[in-house]
Amino acid sequence: MKVTAPPWIEPCSELECFMRGLERRNPGQTEFHQAVREFAESVMPYVLENPKYEKAQILERMTEPDRVIIFRVTWEDDEGNVRVNRAWRVQFNNSIGPYKGGLRFHPEVTLDTLKFLGFEQTFKNSLTGLPMGGAKGGANFNPKGKSDREVMRFCQSLMTELNRHIGEDTDVPAGDIGVGSREISFLFGQYKRLQNRFVGALTGKGIAFGGSLIRTEATGYGCVYFCENMLNHVGDSVQGKTCVVSGSGNVATYAVEKATQLGAKAVAMSDSSGFIHDPDGIDAEKLAFIQELKQVKRGRISEYVVQFPHATYHSGERPWTIPCDLAFPCATQNELNLSEANVLMRNGVKAVSEGANMPTELDAVHAFLQAKVMFAPAKAANAGGVAVSGLEQSQNSLRMAWSREEVDKRLQGIMHDIHSKCVQHGVENGFVNYVKGANLAGFIKVADAMCAYGIV
Ligand code: NAP
């Protein structure tokens, strides 16, 4: 391969040279490095085969966000103490549509996390076929243990700054970890008040004020639909399979709901403190208990075994030791490592479908691919959430509300199309490498738009 290393570093392959430059320009941002490396591994050979991209320095341009907004959020807690947090909006790339991506409230949120998420979002949104650019935002605010009024004051203060950077044709945020319907409602209420405009500048809104049916369920449902497409492609289906799902938030609970509706049995779920194992399966009634526990009472998954004593709770552990056919990592990034991947494979896992963003460490991804386990990367598998957000934007612009059946049908169609694009670009000797397929399909559309705009 041609050596393009700057003179001050050792000769290296194009991929390594590119990564060294990226790591030097973004010191300490290890999650961002990981997300870019996974992408560049797939895309670099294609870029080298197509000199127009290399000449346009397309990878260097794509890995630099359009802009990053960083701001202080000052608010008052229930005891009258002044509290200060930091918030960000990373507007990564708007080549194919207005910026779009969630807001995350979590004490460990950093610019690094939001850059990896905004980068991934760009290609995920491209895969949906809808006109959406990529962005991500959030704050190092911990909603756990805060009263509703405290969360409201925080959201209002955050939106007081954020409102001037977003809008229905500019940037349309949504929810993510720690930002559910309560937070989106407070944020939208403040946006509307400041702008005096009722427009679709946020998605994930309540049904009474411009939200879309199925948006809440879309990421988890879509992740299972994608898995069903992968299994159908090899003449199999979700029906009758045993599933392990990490997390017990929005994505995890609706993944369990859809898998159960399609005839599978989910036997484990988790939160950041540990996991529960229920060999009888987490049926609709037990899932309703978890949803009430986590979303309304804001409790811990350990309380499941108090209600259902035949199940077991495993404190401080992740659920990947439980034998299963299908694994759905739906909690957070880097929650499934190489040794856990090896355990899953020893136990006969057939498919892994990522509901969370980058939940699988890169060497674990490589191991699944090498063993020819069907592996659906987040960009493809969890795109259902942003796809229905896109449909929410369309409904807002049309001033219409589609039925549950209509939105679900469109979601299933979009997941099917994403699967087809992955197959088109990812087949290698009869095996579908969904990582390569998703990365290439997402890349080509954004790259071609950027090239068409000239040198910008
Ligand atoms: P959520 O409703 O806030 O739930 C997050 C779940 O993950 C909770 O069970 C939480 O446990 C657990 N969790 C959080 N941090 C953790 C950690 N460090 N270690 C272990 N578990 C942890 O969030 P969500 O919307 O379901 O999002 C989950 C994932 O899906 C994220 O990667 C997100 O980016 C991705 N995603 C979400 C959407 C969407 O539409 N919501 C769309 C695309 C992708 P605790 O209760 O203990 O905190």
Report the strand count: 14
CATH topology type of the largest domain: Rossmann fold
Range of strand content: 15-25%
CATH-assigned homologous superfamily of the largest domain: NAD(P)-binding Rossmann-like Domain
Described by strand count, sense and barrel closure, the largest sheet is:
7 strands, mixed
Envelope shape: globular
- Which structural class do the helices and strands define? alpha/beta
Bound molecules: NADP nicotinamide-adenine-dinucleotide phosphate
Helix content: 40-55%
Quickly name the level 1 CATH class of the largest domain: Alpha Beta
Number of domains: 3
Number of helices: 17
Protein name: Glutamate dehydrogenase
Family: Belongs to the Glu/Leu/Phe/Val dehydrogenases family.
Subunit structure: Homohexamer.
Keywords: Oxidoreductase
Keywords:
456 residues, alpha/beta, Glutamate Dehydrogenase, Chain A, domain 3, Rossmann fold, 3 domains, seven-stranded mixed sheet, five-stranded mixed sheet, 14 strands, 48% helix, 16% strand, globular, binds NADP nicotinamide-adenine-dinucleotide phosphate, Glu/Leu/Phe/Val/Trp_DH, Glutamate dehydrogenase, Glu_Leu_Phe_Val_DH, Glu/Leu/Phe/Val/Trp_DH_dimer
Report on the architecture of this protein.
Keywords: Oxidoreductase. Homohexamer. Residues 212-454 form the Glutamate/phenylalanine/leucine/valine/L-tryptophan dehydrogenase C-terminal domain. Belongs to the Glu/Leu/Phe/Val dehydrogenases family. This is Glutamate dehydrogenase. This protein has 456 residues and is of the alpha/beta class. It folds into 3 domains: 1-64 and 431-456, Glutamate Dehydrogenase, Chain A, domain 3 (Orthogonal Bundle), CATH 1.10.285; 67-199, 3-Layer(aba) Sandwich (Rossmann fold); 218-376, NAD(P)-binding Rossmann-like Domain (Rossmann fold, 3-Layer(aba) Sandwich). It has helices at residues 14-25, 30-49, 51-55, 58-62, 111-127, 148-162, 181-195, 215-233, 250-261, 284-296, 304-307, 338-346, 362-370, 378-381, 383-398, 404-426, 434-452; strands at residues 67-76, 82-93, 99-105, 134-139, 171-174, 242-246, 265-271, 274-277, 312-315, 326-329, 351-353, 374-376, 427-428, 431-432. It has a 7-stranded mixed β-sheet, with helices on both faces. Strands 1-2-4-3-5 form a 5-stranded mixed β-sheet. Strands 13-14 form a two-stranded antiparallel sheet. Strand 11 (351-353), helix 13 (362-370) and strand 12 form a beta-alpha-beta unit. Helix 2 packs parallel to helix 5. It is globular, with a radius of gyration of 21 Å. It starts with 13 loop residues before the first helix and ends with a helix. NADP nicotinamide-adenine-dinucleotide phosphate binds next to helix 9.
